[in-house]
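User: I'm putting together a teaching handout on how multi-component assemblies are represented. Below are the sequence lines for each component of a complex, exactly as they appear in our records. Could you produce the 3D structure of the whole assembly as structure tokens, so the students can see both representations side by side? Please keep the chain order the same as the input.
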Amino acid sequence: MVYPRQQSNFWYLKRWPYRIFILREFSAVFLAAYMVVLLILVMKVHDGPAAFHDFADTLQSPALIVFNTIALLFALLHTVTWFMAVPSAMQLRRGEEKVPPQLLIGAAYVLMLGASVVVLLLVLV
Amino acid sequence: MTVEATDGITVGPSARPSQDTISLEIARYRPGHDEHPTFESYDVPYRPEWVVLDALNYLKDQVDGTLSYRWSCRMGVCGSCGMMVNGVPKLTCATFLRDYLPGPIRVEALANFPIERDLVIVLDDFIEKLPKIKPWLVREVEQPLEEGEYLQTPKELADYKQYSMCINCMLCYSACPVYQNDEHFLGPALLALGQRYNHDSRDQGAAERHDVMWTSEGVWDCTFVGECSVVCPKHVDPAGAIQQAKVESTIGWQLSFAPPVPPLPFGRKQAEET
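Assistant: Of course. Below is the structure of the complete assembly, with chains in the same order as your input.
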């Protein structure tokens, strides 16, 4: 008589790698919510200076500061964990040799910084 | 449970391990006798050069011959001795007692598989799914023998060699929460095995495997937890193989809209030789 294994609904609490995974997945919720805030911000910019300043005041409310702080932490977790996964997802070769994982992860950070600088220039200029 | 020791070693509900012994908590399940697995504790001699499998062999030889588990080569090749060691899938022939001092060490049957007895799992699900992936070289037309073997360059070999190192130890299935929650999922080792053949320049069966692999029970069921690659003792990196296959699946899907349909870029030899 074979013993069927019981599946726990809380399997992701068993070990740290699973906890990190579920947090990485959960981070998408905060990133999506932050995108909504960002889109509203763009709409307010479109509506003119008064609408933008009103929204900027709203963003300074304690609740939204707490939300943005949490969203930032989740965004960092999202970025770091996904960038760590880049070497698995992108298996590049130079001839017979694999491109070193550190190089791929480093390239991802360089690309992110480059994109951030472009966005910053767009906003400031 | 208390078992009489044959050589003076304390066996049964264990006391704190001394310098000379280490405690093993082993999940026992005797079909027809136990309703569910229960942990029983044994003290075994501690020797720094011993692996968990040595401790199990000691117990079976010296203490309780009914303890059941699989093992064969004792050198990380046969893939038989996979078990959960302190909750992590491990090859017990490559898991040293010294890394778990002072103990106890908890040994269970591999997670996500039904238990046949004690530490022996039922592999039927994997065996039934295995032929779906066509884990052999598929040829449309076999080259005549007089033309010799199918030659490969070192680069062509490197393209799939990593995936060919799998020893079917099932550690990746045991670490995979998707396999735990979806019985239809083909699983990490099988999908890596599919990539092993799809990337083999001698193979012409990629299109047939795509019908199985590029599905919601195939690569698209994977949520990229990544633990399959972490626990893999042969560094096959099944998570990488699956992500690679997802990229190929996406390209294949996009190419399917391009008339006339060109030969898929994976299984290149097929296009070159026809």
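A couple of points students might notice: The CA atoms of residues 58 and 64 of chain A lie 8 Å apart. The beta strands of chain A are 93-94, 97-98.
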